[in-house]
Amino acid sequence: MRLITHNMLQCHVKGCNANNFPLELQEVVLEQEEAEMNEDFLRNMLTKIEYDALVATCLKLDINDLPATIPADAAYNDEFLQILHRVILETHIKSGKMVCPNCQHNYIIRDGIPNMLLAEHEV
Amino acid sequence: MSRPEHQAPPEIVYGGDEAAKYTGNSRIAAIQAEMAGRAVELLNLPEGYPGFILDVGCGSGLSGEVLEEEGHVWVGFDIAPAMLEVALEQEASGDLFLQDAGQGMAFRPGTFDGCISISVLQWLCNADKTSHHPKARLMRFFSTLYSSLRRGARAIFQFYPENDDQVQLIMGCAVRCGFEGGLVVDYPNSKKAKKFYLCLFAGQEVNGVKQQLPAGLGEDEEGEPGENGVQYTSKKRNDSRIRSGKRKPGKDKNWVLKKKEQLRAKGDKTANDSKFTARKRRPKF
């Protein structure tokens, strides 16, 4: 799973509606995989990404490349787009778990695939 | 038509063997790719706009390949672990999740520019566990999907409805969750190429243009899809029994004599054998 997708995930356990984002990553194994750079896509995603949550997550994973605040000219700042591309589209989470900060539900990640299935009482 | 959803829950039907078959069979792959292509076309995204697309029931990532060719970045989920394993082997480009559509989705509001799904919705109409209520599952699915879509985005579902009630149930749930749209039927006059696409709009476009339901393909003609598509023939598959000319032998004189012998051995009262034994009666009796 790429970090961009992690940035879009929130807990969906029944009744867990507040403070359920971002899911905290634990015991994570990362892998870098090259991907083709697509600037238009990054520009489209800029408005959707929760930048603060992304930076916080990255810092926990020892990725310190992103600036603390989003540059004002982010959409046309090539250098920034390069870094963003590398962080959100080329960094894959291979295994580990995601923990909801609110209800502490664990989503296990195996082979890069998070298990999002819920138990019956959580639906 | 065989309906795999009547056999067992999806994660069992699409276990090991079936998962391999699904990707190994070039005909299935071609049909899937064609339907995915049509679904992407119905999404109606602007030309050259690389979107973030959700693939519900992505399976081994066949429809993801189509999305990737169009330049989109995709995220998919499926309930069958065996199918996801195949997707991993094929090095699918999208992010994969193990997830049950009926349990809803865990994406933030406004995440996706569109959603496609090939042959999934009919599975949601089943109750595979005692705790499953199809209507509640559909409602949860559609409501979480609605919120995870950007305003004005479309969700296209190719599915095989069993009957009219099922269509009504699915559309009713979608409308109650805020979706607009309707059913697009491709090749309605063809028995096999007929395909149903549920075309849903998550609200109207931001620029105020009213979304129109696209027209189905081949609505006026009698015919089947053109040469580019998968070919459908009305010919039955070769049955090995017919081909070899072998038929199961009927109940002839020898069979009757054998049966009578058995009955005598048991001591039952049995008519004597004669030249009339096992002879056919005349038509006028």
UniProtKB/TrEMBL annotation, chain A:
Protein origin, superkingdom: Eukaryota
Please give one Gene Ontology molecular function term for this protein: protein methyltransferase activity
In this entry, which stretches build a coiled coil? none
InterPro entries reported for this sequence: Trm112, Trm112-like
Q: Tell me, what is an example of a GO biological process annotation in this record?
A: maturation of LSU-rRNA
Record's Gene Ontology CC terms?
Answer: eRF1 methyltransferase complex; tRNA (m2G10) methyltransferase complex
Q: How does it assemble?
A: Interacts with TRM9.
The family classification in the record reads: Belongs to the TRM112 family.
UniProt-recorded name of the protein: Trm112p-domain-containing protein
UniProtKB/TrEMBL annotation, chain B:
| Pfam family of the protein (one) | Methyltransf_11
Keywords in alphabetical order: Cytoplasm, Methyltransferase, Nucleus, S-adenosyl-L-methionine, Transferase
Any idea where the 18S rRNA (guanine(1575)-N(7))-methyltransferase Bud23 C-terminal domain is?
A: 200-282
Tell me where on the tree of life, at the top rank, the source sits.
Eukaryota
What segments bear the compositional bias annotation Basic and acidic residues?
251-272
Q: Which CDD domains has this protein been placed in?
A: AdoMet_MTases
Report the sequence similarity comment from the record.
Belongs to the class I-like SAM-binding methyltransferase superfamily. BUD23/WBSCR22 family.
In Swiss-Prot or TrEMBL terms, this protein is called: Uncharacterized protein
> In which organism is this protein found?
Mortierella hygrophila
